[in-house]
Amino acid sequence: MIRYKNGVKAVTFCTVAVILFSCTYKVFSWKDTGGGYLSSMKTFYGLERDVVDVLFLGSSHCYCSINPAVLWEKYGIAAFSLSISGQDLASSYHCMKEALKTQQPRVVCVEMYYTNFHGYQIKGNMYRNLLGYQISQNFADAVGDIAEAEEVRELLLKWPIIHTRYAELTEKDFRQDEMMRTYIGHAGGFYGENIEEISVYQGEEQIAIGEEEEIWLERIFDLAEEKGVELCFFLAPFGADEETQMRYRYVESLAEAHQVPFLNLIALHQELGLDVEQDFTDTGHTNSYGALKVSDHLGGYLSERYELQDRRGDERYRLWEENLLIWNHQMQNRSLQQTADLGAYLDAVKMYRDDYIYIVFSQGEYLAEAEDLADRLEGVGIGEEFFDREGVWVIEDGTVLYQTVGEDCFRHMRIGGSDLLINRDGDELQIVIDRQEYGKASQGIDIIVYDKALGQIVDEVGFQALREYICVR
Q1: Do the Cβ atoms of 186 and 81 come closer than 8 Å?
Q2: Whole-angstrom distance, CA of residue 463 vs CA of residue 469
Q3: With CB atoms 3.0 to 4.6 Å apart as the test, which of 30, 160, 267, 392 could cross-link to 131 if both were Cys?
Q4: End-to-end Cα spacing for the chain
Q5: Residue 17 reports pLDDT greater than 80
Q6: Which one-letter DSSP state was computed for residue 271?
Q7: H or E element: which one contains 286?
Q8: Pairing outcome for strands 428-433 and 436-438
Q9: Structural contact between residues 95 and 103, judged by C-beta atoms closer than 8 angstroms
Q10: What does the alpha-carbon distance between residue 130 and residue 112 come to, in Å, rounded to a whole number?
């Protein structure tokens, strides 16, 4: 009996310990392969078997230039990108090996930027490339191939590295948002930097890449042949110097020897219509505008060469539809953020009213005689009381959820997953959302836009009435 009780206690203790460790690990686990708490590895492990038709591998040059949402929307291609910051060829090989355990893609596209480099100069990139794996023999092999000997033990155990994250935990470590849940490999942005030009090497001379890089390329060739998948190599457009491009010429010759296509998008940047003033975030990476053009071109090529099936409308591919929805909202939000005319902004509010919750508030003295202002306000659900006194309106789907005009108030309410506090005391008005205070125009109209799909504030704009409704951001 005593042995039985002790056995029960031991089993109970172990069970509780495993549950506690699992919950704790979920919070502390590494959630960043593409920046901004976006992890394609985490999403990948949640996929059904055999749903990926095109697999992308590579570094940030890959996830900045390839947008699976564009491939899905235009061509119905079920593409997934396991590209990770700083991913070298060894990591590309092991990512490919891991993916082929559960997926049988028609083609694996590998971005070639890192054939010119070896290893990890930034330790954080090594963590990004290794800590996302589930425990397996391939994970152990990847750690052994990539990490220095003194780092292997900590990486295999993971906990000695990730437990130090306690000082940097954020809400996203505890609650997954829609961007994280639907992330399949494009980490872009709309910031543009003029990189002035992209020069294209016209000669035929080649420079050999490192011996170790060539070995890993050969292993990728062999793995593809073993698993019966086709390869496609491509080079994302960026500002590469002549010597670097000569090395890529050598890689192209290796690909040709194995009858693997090699798409040099540096050489094709003009054909793609890339604008060096607007389509790059820096010399090395395209932004989301550039990714639109690159993805469109590559999608057409892949569809024609590999006769990929159009998966749109298939319930198994709902994740791709949800990812496209997020992308469309990002583009829509960008349009709002660039709108500086009050009338045009109110028209956009009306057009997109089903997608957002709006908080509109007026302060101080403002001009009632702005052209068509009354009609445009009515279109978004605000009546003539707007012109009588200062007020606050919370609007969803064209319906006013709450309003107060010219009165003191203290109101807390939820908008989506956020807390909204409206507090008016005499002449002082406070609009606070998730502990952040908002307000741009001291004399005029403010509009705050909450995106219901993304679950976050996506724009805040003020229009100063006493300066002819000039836009303030």
Answers
A1: yes
A2: 5
A3: 30
A4: 74
A5: no
A6: T
A7: strand 285-286
A8: antiparallel
A9: no
A10: 20
